[in-house]
Design a protein that fits this description.
Elements (H helix, E strand, L loop, with lengths): L2 H19 L5 H20 L1 H4 L7 H17 L1 H7 L4 H17 L1 H4 L7 H19 L14 E3 H6 L6 H12 L1 H10 L10 H10 L1 H13 L4 H17 L7 E5 L9 E2 L2 E5 L20 H4 L7 H14 L9 H18 L5 H5 L3 H9 L1 H10 L8 H4 L22 H16 L5 H6 L3 H8 L5
Parallel strand pairs: 1-2, 2-4
Antiparallel strand pairs: 3-4
Length: 454
């Protein structure tokens, strides 16, 4: 079989695949399937020595083939998890067609493949098991037209000239609206914009050595924000997928002398770039008294997207209900927030979403059964004394009373709540994300999760 004939066969199979599985897929998706098949053939060619030449598969060899194929499917998850959303039924049909494809191309593969019905069924079950828990969050965003732009107020502010502030400031105020007023009064401390006497304070700030040193550092660290804009575009597209009517905020970058990191106001979320300069920034030791090391070491560029999204999710979409009373209530509420962050930022690491170091996340995974046992043994789930339970909910270098040598992670109630919600959604695959987010029955979520870490 020539390469041209082979490629034509694959294209025909892709279009057949297109008709059989999902009529809403576009040509881009079909091309991805085509590339998937090409990659699959490359994989099978590469594993030819393992599988044997010109052989009929024994059950042992077939099992080894499936193990390798599963590894291959994991490696090509961009097709299976990001570009195309498969129902379990459609996925099953996908693999039936894949087997037909393999049979049709057996001359190319130089093998005779005989499939045992039992092993084929096992293959389906294994593959479905690997992908089922991801399908709910793997969505098609191709029809969502959205491009996020971060407005660079930090640069506009830095370009103001002391001698012409009276003429330039009103133009800047008109451009940035609510943010400008909030920034001048609440963040920079220059004064209320309704009284033009704030111009004098602004001139002093713009002329100061500290202001200009910080401006230069921000300019150097963020010559452009295309990476963050791309990440946030993807995250907000996910929001729009689940909540098409959700209004999205303006995103405005600034620096304020370490006053605030991601403020949210009327129609905007600010991004305080001076609080994302990197853990080793020369500025952070000077603010150690107000911003301890365990906080400032998370002031890194990769934290911009998760912190912006967390602010938006917590403050705008799902604000904390006043009805939260027990530790369990707060665990599940925060677990749902983190699960929604999973859904909107599937490519962001778990440690960034919850605000852990890699070591802290590993500690939680290792000692998850002991953490849960600690909550149960100390009757903490239904405790309503916030002064007592806050240490399991808030930022800290570690959690007092748990673990050795202060190696424990903080915010353990958030981590456990997250795992409960994940288990609940895995066990109850019929529940949609929107149904989860509006469900206030935290006890029911715990009960139906059957959460028992081992």
């Amino acid at each position: 079989m020539s390469d041209a004939v082979f490629k034509n066969l694959i294209k025909k199979l892709c279009f057949y695949y297109f008709r059989q599985i999902n009529n809403s897929m576009n040509l881009k998706s079909v091309r991805q399937i085509y590339l998937f098949f090409v990659n699959m053939i490359c994989f099978l060619r590469a594993t030819k020595n393992l599988l044997g030449k010109l052989i009929t598969f024994s059950q042992f060899c077939l099992r080894r083939c499936f193990v390798n194929m599963i590894c291959f499917l994991r490696a090509t998850k961009n097709l299976l998890s990001k570009l195309i959303t498969f129902s379990q039924f459609c996925l099953r049909r996908c693999f039936v067609n894949m087997i037909c494809f393999l049979r049709a191309t057996k001359n190319l593969l130089s093998t005779r493949i005989s499939f045992s019905g039992l092993h084929l069924c096992s293959f389906f079950l294994i593959t479905l098991g690997l992908t089922a828990c991801n399908n709910r969050k793997d969505v098609d965003l191709s029809n969502i037209d959205l491009t996020v732009t971060i407005e660079r107020f930090d640069r506009d502010l830095g370009s103001l000239k002391v001698k012409t502030i009276q003429q330039q400031a009103p133009l800047l105020q008109k451009k940035y609206g609510n943010f400008y007023s909030d920034f001048m009064d609440g963040m920079l401390g220059a004064g209320h914009t309704a009284d033009t006497s704030y111009y004098a304070n602004l001139r002093t700030i713009l002329s100061s050595r500290d202001f200009n040193a910080l401006k230069d550092e921000v300019d150097h660290k963020y010559p452009d924000m295309s990476k963050q804009e791309s990440e946030l575009t993807d995250a907000f597209k996910h929001v729009k997928y689940y909540y098409p009517g959700q209004k999205l905020p303006r995103l405005i970058s600034f620096f304020s002398g370490f006053a605030v990191q991601t403020p949210i106001g009327n129609d905007y979320i600010g991004i305080g770039l001076d609080m994302f300069l990197g853990a080793d920034s020369k500025f952070y030791p000077a603010i150690r008294q107000s911003v301890p090391l365990y906080i400032s070491k998370k002031f890194t560029p990769e934290n911009i997207t998760p912190r912006v999204m967390e602010t938006f999710i917590r403050e705008e979409i799902f604000p904390e209900p006043e009805s939260l009373n027990t530790l369990l209530d707060r665990m599940i509420y925060n677990g749902k927030i983190l699960y929604f962050m999973d859904a909107t930022m599937p490519a962001v690491s778990d440690s960034l979403k919850i605000g852990y170091t890699a070591a802290q996340l590993d500690w939680c995974k290792t000692f998850e059964p002991q953490i849960w046992a600690y909550f149960l043994e100390n009757n903490l789930l239904y405790d309503t004394d916030y002064m007592k339970i806050q240490k399991y909910l808030t930022e800290a270098p570690f959690t007092p009373g748990i673990g050795e040598k202060n190696e424990s992670a903080p915010k353990l109630a958030l981590y456990i709540g997250w795992q409960i919600v994940k288990k609940y959604m895995d066990v109850n695959s019929n529940i949609k994300l929107q149904d989860l987010m509006k469900d206030p029955d935290y006890q029911m979520i715990l009960s139906k999760s059957k959460y028992k870490p081992k």
